């Protein structure tokens, strides 16, 4: 196994792969650092530009974006107190107070080094666990897959902030979009309005770009109104720091680092939970285990370590689930899975054994992205701060243009751009109505798979009770019910505590 | 920000600049209408670099567009511009999905480029089944009609081959839709289906005792598999192989076609390609534009008869 990994690393160290990986990490860091540009959006925008590359080049780029994006959020979070990505929110709790106390360098480097170590530790897990997990995945028949997808959808709908009903509805809307086009088994056209274009259904990426990127950018524009210069005049604070003392701060807390990493990995492996949940949970746990919980929120290094280590560990965990089961963890991993499919990779139980070169190439890219990320930060942290202060009135139009080019570049046809605009409007309306988008995307991704596995199960055996009587399938369905009940209970409890809270749309 | 703008502008130029240069001047997309890791993919993946070399280095990108028994990719290929920048990796299923009414795309919607390979079918069983020979399987099938599950791309070659076995042996299977060999392999290794249409691309798994080959559908035993009996010697007169070639959308200019045909002929002789075909138990079987056109016509009539014989003809 380790000789394969070494070969993978040696392979990725070639300029052919190293350059895409480097660029991906860089773009990811920038995207992650920019408030309002999420990792999901960055990945969506980068993806079409990797089509011309060979599969490993493309996937190295995407892995870089994913890793870089997860770390990049920390920079903005620590320096200006705005999470660059939703998962960095817990980093603001202690990172920003630390900056305010005059230690911005310490704050961001604690974040970056913790990301790096959390990610690397998770990487070791990733390599060790994919094989055994794939063996388990092989035991999954159509019943189990169907139930697993249902579980994933109900989890993500239940865990989103805001209304459970809207979460579930968003999932259903996602599923409904996949009904359009030929059915996946007998190729019967459905809702195609007689057009040839819709015979193959709505093209996946334009829909994704529309719903996610367009809708969020539109809301951002709306929020701007004149207040945009409020955050602009940030003087670049001194970022000097003793790396040794920061590393000591991290390694003198091995338990914290290991525990946060573990939390990140576990949340990552479970389908459909995602990065924000990982960091919030790790932060919460760190606070509970700490001897001085009262110091949290006032610039405690432990808060930053827990948040950032779990954030990048989550990336490793979710890559395992994508590779072994072919199931996305959240919106980001959903797009990563799409990226693999586009690059001709059928992830699933046989992926690692059939394509060891690509699988270990991805492992290697994942591991190498971490030192690259640290390296880029060492040179570029100050510059990132400049990027962050780019007025949104300039940033947003540029990102919008990139979205349209990305959609067009897929097949060089205008229909894709029309789909993008259409779903941009749909997404915008949904955001306005406070629908969470993550369940929608998951529904969109899993729609075909749910249908195919349901049909296969019925074709294999007409007895519908098998969904419940087969142990793994029944267990997963029970979990789905439990997750919805849990969400109901939690929402009720929250309602009791807080009245109307102005909630950000969940990306 | 300037950098970003410059990058966007550069990219735009890169995409739109030299549209009018000599063919081929930009990457060629080869549509494989099944998932990566399937047998068609396994055959065209080593062919792509050989073709690329023969075309003077023009990148050939494989696009796996799977779904609905390969008809999604077929439709995509039919709708692509006829400029030689989209090729369509095809096999006999194109006739079958047309006659079984799965799809309204027919071979006549394309220009033949070349035929490259023929792969004999092998009846393949899951490691979790209790039979080790064809005889035991047939006995079991006779005792439990309609109980043995076969994973197949419905209406395609992997449906037809077991259907021919069914007819020859007088037994009845139950069919479950698994598009493409890659998906069928996941299912058969986990024991979720009992039988499938396999081929020598899966020999590695048989050697590792993860799969069982019951019988091969050739005239004589394959030198790669001396221990696997032919269906014919077992008394079932079924000879079946899948022929794979390249098509281009109808209306592709003649000069582009002849350039592609030439490159294809050169690529079919490529020693690396030949070696990887040998490993996969596939015969390199090259036919040029004209020969392939003739082959397609005959094959189409043959498959129509086959569909009628098996009671699957819908048009």
Secondary-structure blueprint:
The complex is a heterodimer of chains A (507) and B (315).
Chain A (H helix, E strand, L loop, with lengths): L1 H11 L2 H19 L5 H8 L8 H26 L8 H12 L3 H35 L3 H18 L4 H16 L1 E2 L6 E2 L13 H21 L18 H9 L2 H16 L5 H15 L11 H25 L5 H12 L8 H4 L1 H33 L3 H20 L2 H19 L5 H23 L5 H4 L1 H27 L10
Antiparallel strand pairs in A: 1-2
Chain B lengths: L1 H15 L11 E5 L6 H16 L5 E5 L6 H9 L6 E6 L1 H7 L10 E11 L1 E4 L8 H10 L5 E4 L4 H13 L4 E4 L2 H10 L5 E4 L4 H5 L4 E5 L24 E9 L4 H15 L2 H9 L3 E5 L1 H21 L6
Parallel strand pairs in B: 1-2, 1-3, 6-7, 6-8
Antiparallel strand pairs in B: 3-10, 4-10, 4-11, 5-8, 5-9
Helix pairs in contact in B: 2-9, 2-10
Description:
The complex is a heterodimer of chains A (507) and B (315). With 507 residues, chain A is mainly alpha-helical. Chain A has one domain. Chain A is 74% helix and 1% strand. In chain A, strands 1-2 form a two-stranded antiparallel sheet. In chain A, strand 1 and strand 2 form a beta hairpin. In chain A, helix 12 packs across helix 13 and helix 17 crosses helix 18. In chain A, 58% of the residues are buried. The C terminus of chain A is likely disordered. By secondary structure, chain B is an alpha/beta fold. In chain B, strand 1, helix 2 and strand 2 form a beta-alpha-beta unit. Chain B starts with a helix and ends in a 6-residue tail after the last helix. The relative contact order of chain B is 0.18. Chain B is globular and about 65 Å long. Chain B folds into two domains: 161 residues, D-Maltodextrin-Binding Protein, domain 2 (3-Layer(aba) Sandwich); 95 residues, Periplasmic binding protein-like II (D-Maltodextrin-Binding Protein, domain 2, 3-Layer(aba) Sandwich), CATH 3.40.190.10. In chain B, helix 2 crosses helix 9 and helix 2 packs antiparallel against helix 10. The interface between A and B is large, with 42 and 46 residues.
């Amino acid at each position: 196994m380790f000789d394969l990994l070494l070969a993978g690393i040696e392979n990725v160290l070639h300029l052919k792969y190293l350059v895409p990986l480097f660029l991906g990490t860089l773009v990811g860091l920038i995207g992650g650092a920019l408030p309002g540009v999420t990792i999901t959006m960055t990945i969506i925008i980068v993806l079409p530009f990797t089509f011309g590359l060979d599969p490993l080049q493309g996937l190295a780029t995407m892995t870089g974006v994913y890793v870089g994006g997860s770390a990049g959020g920390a920079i903005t979070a620590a320096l200006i107190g705005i999470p660059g990505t939703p998962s960095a929110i817990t980093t603001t709790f202690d990172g920003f107070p630390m900056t305010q106390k005059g230690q911005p360098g310490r704050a961001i480097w604690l974040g970056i080094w913790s990301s790096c170590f959390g990610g690397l530790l998770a990487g070791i897990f990733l390599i060790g666990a994919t094989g055994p997990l794939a063996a388990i995945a092989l035991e999954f028949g159509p019943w189990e897959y169907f139930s697993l997808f249902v579980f994933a959808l109900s989890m993500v709908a239940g865990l989103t902030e805001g209304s459970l009903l809207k979460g579930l509805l968003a999932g259903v809307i996602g599923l409904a979009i996949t009904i359009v086009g030929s059915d996946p088994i007998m190729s019967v056209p459905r809702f195609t309005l007689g057009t040839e274009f819709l015979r193959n259904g709505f093209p996946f990426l334009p829909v994704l770009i529309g719903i996610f990127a367009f809708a969020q950018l539109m809301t951002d524009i709306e929020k701007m109104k004149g207040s945009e210069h409020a955050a602009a005049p940030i003087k670049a604070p001194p970022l000097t720091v003793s790396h040794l003392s920061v590393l000591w701060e991290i390694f003198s807390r091995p338990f914290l680092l290991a525990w946060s990493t573990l939390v990140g990995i576990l949340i990552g492996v479970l389908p459909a939970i995602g990065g924000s949940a990982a960091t919030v949970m790790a932060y919460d746990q760190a606070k509970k285990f700490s001897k001085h919980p009262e110091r949290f929120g006032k610039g405690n290094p432990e808060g930053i370590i827990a948040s950032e280590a779990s954030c990048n560990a989550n990336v490793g965990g979710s890559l395992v689930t994508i590779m072994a089961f072919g199931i996305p963890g959240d919106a980001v991993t959903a797009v990563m899975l799409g990226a693999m499919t586009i690059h001709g990779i059928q992830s699933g139980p046989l992926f690692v054994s059939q394509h060891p070169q690509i699988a270990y190439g991805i492992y290697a890219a994942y591991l190498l992205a971490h030192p690259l990320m640290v390296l880029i930060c060492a040179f570029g942290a100050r510059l990132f701060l400049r990027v962050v202060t780019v007025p949104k009135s300039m940033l947003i139009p540029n990102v919008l243009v990139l979205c349209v080019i990305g959609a067009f570049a897929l097949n060089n046809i205008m229909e894709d751009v029309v789909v993008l605009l259409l779903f941009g409007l749909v997404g915008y309306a949904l955001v306005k109505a406070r629908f969470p988008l993550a369940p929608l995307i998951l529904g969109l991704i899993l729609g075909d798979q749910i249908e195919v596995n349901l049909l296969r199960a019925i074709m294999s055996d007409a007895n519908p009770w098998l969904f419940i009587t087969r142990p793994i399938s029944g267990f997963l369905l029970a979990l789905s019910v439990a997750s919805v009940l849990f969400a109901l209970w939690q929402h009720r409890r929250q309602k009791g505590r807080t009245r109307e809270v102005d909630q950000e749309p969940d990306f | 920000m300037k950098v970003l703008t410059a990058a966007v502008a550069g990219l735009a130029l890169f995409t739109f600049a030299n549209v009018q240069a000599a063919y081929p001047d930009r990457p060629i997309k080869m549509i494989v209408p099944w998932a990566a890791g399937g047998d068609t993919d396994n055959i065209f993946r080593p062919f792509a670099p050989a073709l690329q070399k023969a075309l003077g280095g023009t990148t050939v990108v494989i696009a796996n567009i799977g779904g609905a028994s390969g008809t999604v990719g077929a439709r995509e290929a039919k709708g692509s511009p006829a400029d030689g920048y989209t090729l369509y990796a095809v096999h006999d299923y194109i006739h079958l999905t047309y006659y079984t009414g799965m799809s309204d795309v027919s071979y006549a919607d394309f220009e033949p480029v070349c035929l490259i390979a023929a792969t004999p079918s092998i009846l393949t069983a899951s490691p979790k089944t209790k039979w080790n020979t064809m005889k035991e399987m047939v006995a079991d099938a006779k005792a439990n009609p309609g109980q043995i599950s076969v994973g197949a791309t419905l209406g395609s070659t992997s449906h037809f081959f077991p259907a021919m076995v069914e007819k020859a042996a007088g037994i009845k299977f139950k069919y479950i839709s698994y598009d493409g060999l890659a998906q069928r392999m996941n299912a058969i290794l986990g024991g979720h289906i009992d039988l499938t249409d396999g081929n020598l691309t899966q020999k590695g798994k048989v050697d590792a005792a993860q799969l069982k080959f019951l019988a091969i559908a050739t005239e004589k035993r394959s030198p790669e598999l001396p221990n696997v009996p032919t269906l014919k010697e077992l008394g079932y007169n079924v000879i079946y192989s899948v022929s794979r070639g390249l098509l281009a959308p109808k209306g592709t200019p003649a000069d582009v076609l002849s350039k592609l045909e030439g490159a294809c002929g050169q690529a079919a002789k490529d020693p690396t390609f030949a070696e990887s075909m040998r490993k996969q138990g596939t015969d390199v079987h090259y036919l040029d534009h004209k020969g392939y056109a003739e082959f397609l016509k005959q094959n189409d009539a043959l498959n129509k008869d086959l569909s009628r014989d098996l009671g699957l003809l819908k048009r």
